[in-house]
Amino acid sequence: MVDRPAEGHGEVDRIAGEGVCEVDLIHPGAVLRVREALPDEGATRRAAEVFGVLADPTRARIVCALAIEELCVCDVAAVAGLSVSAASHQLKRLRDRGVVGYRKEGRLAFYRLVDDRVRGLMEEGVGHAMAGAASGAAARGA
């Protein structure tokens, strides 16, 4: 990348790669509107934590399963193909991030999603992934 002053515009021209601005030019109105609309750092940190915990395929599968039905730890293990100990560990991570909650019924612990918004996120994400896979397969088959 090569930077050089642009002629009389207070900008810096550059030879840039694809997807990069060729000049440095801040649009103050856009920056102000976006800054005012952004959630505070605490909210974005919490969102990143939820997305981070869902970024693991095993935990994502567990969340998808719990979006269908409340399950006890043993059932979660069977659905996810894990040992009960491993399932319990993953459920604890999800519980620590506020994604799942549980209730005790006798000697069993039943897990459920705490928030329907997480269900919506997973449905949207999985639907998006499936649509992308289908369009990619169609493009390869054409």
Automatic annotation (TrEMBL):
The keyword DNA repair does not apply. One of its GO terms (molecular function) is DNA binding. SMART domains: HTH_ARSR. SUPFAM superfamilies: Winged helix' DNA-binding domain. Keywords: DNA-binding, Plasmid, Transcription, Transcription regulation. The keyword Metal-binding does not apply. InterPro entries: ArsR-like_HTH, ArsR_HTH, HTH_ArsR_DNA-bd_dom, Metal_resp_trans_reg, WH-like_DNA-bd_sf, WH_DNA-bd_sf. Pfam families: HTH_5 (PF01022). Residues 39-133 form the HTH arsR-type domain. It comes from the Bacteria. PROSITE patterns: HTH_ARSR_1 (PS00846), HTH_ARSR_2 (PS50987). This is Metalloregulator ArsR/SmtB family transcription factor.
